[in-house]
Amino acid sequence: QVQLVESGGGLVQAGGSLRLSCAASGSIFSVSAMRWYRQAPGKQRELVAIITSGGNTNYADSVKGRFTISRDNAKNTVYLQMNSLKPEDTAVYYCSAGLVYWGQGTQVTVSS
Q1: Cα 93 to chain centroid, rounded
Q2: For 24-72, how does the pLDDT look when each residue is reduced to its tens digit (9 = 90+)?
Q3: What is the Cα–Cα distance from 25 to 15, expressed in whole angstroms?
Q4: Is CB count within 10 Å lower at the N or C end of the chain?
Q5: Is the dihedral of CA 54, 55, 59, 64 positive or negative?
């Protein structure tokens, strides 16, 4: 059974930065595409960023140029560096391994 644990969320002012981490247990990490999703109150969950097992990345248009996804296979951890945060980035952020396993989420709140 794979477990994903997110951390790094919090309250930050607009323009600030946060780095989210998602630590995975289990051996599938290195072969799985890892994704960060977010869900704001009253909205559907949306894909923020994806990184393949080979390191290719893709981002939602709303975060391009501000967010960076990366992974450390030796540590079974995926990161989401978030810069120039905006109030509309406020959401619960979730990581996913292969769209099969999901973390519990971490709250990010950006104040204006």
Answers
A1: 6
A2: 987 777 778 999 999 999 999 999 999 999 999 999 999 999 999 999 9
A3: 33
A4: N
A5: negative
